[in-house]
Amino acid sequence: MILPLFFIFCLFSSSHAAVQDFCVGDLTAPQGPAGYSCKNPSKVTVNDFVFSGLGTPGNTSNLIKAAVTPAFAAQFPGVNGLGISFGRLDLAPGGVVPFHTHPGGSEILVVVQGTILAGFVSSANTVYFKSLKKGDIMVFPQGLLHFQVNAGGSAAIAFVSFSSSSPGLQILDYALFGNNLPTELVAATTFLDTAQIKKLKGVLGGTG
Hints:
Blueprint (H helix, E strand, L loop, with lengths): L1 H15 L49 E6 L13 E7 L4 E6 L5 E7 L2 E6 L5 E6 L4 E4 L5 E5 L5 E7 L7 E2 H6 L5 H8 L3 H11 L4
Antiparallel strand pairs: 1-2, 2-9, 3-8, 3-10, 4-7, 4-9, 5-6, 5-8
Keywords: Apoplast, Disulfide bond, Glycoprotein, Manganese, Metal-binding, Receptor, Secreted, Signal
Protein name: Germin-like protein
Pfam family, one: Cupin_1
């Protein structure tokens, strides 16, 4: 009786045990699908596990009047391989984070100042959106298109966490109009007017 129980305990323990305590990202090496390779443990310091950049407001003097300050593996090597990361979102009045996705992880947003209208679209094209106030939290499932808009008259701030150390980012508008995809092809695949496409390409830096 003791042997089977011991065997089950070993199976359970080994399936949840980490091979090593951590894998601080070696930012001098290329990042692969599994993240960065591990920094030599002898060169790891406490500063690898601390990020001090989220206390400073991001620069919202841009087209979308928004700024995201990421604390992903590339900026915060201590989270490499842990399946977590963090960030700060600043939205000036009228600011917006356009439809975008994080292909590598789900997101949780918590509002700490102002009012933010946020939402996402499911794969069934069902829309879920709500006006969030200070203390409200919303989750955006991995890979789904979502957005955030400043819904008040003053600056809004939120903090975001991700289920990945490198969640990735693709903004829909830039994917369509911020590259050299031919205008005719964009028109054929989106049903948009070519004049409007060229206008958007001009605003977002696209060509073709």
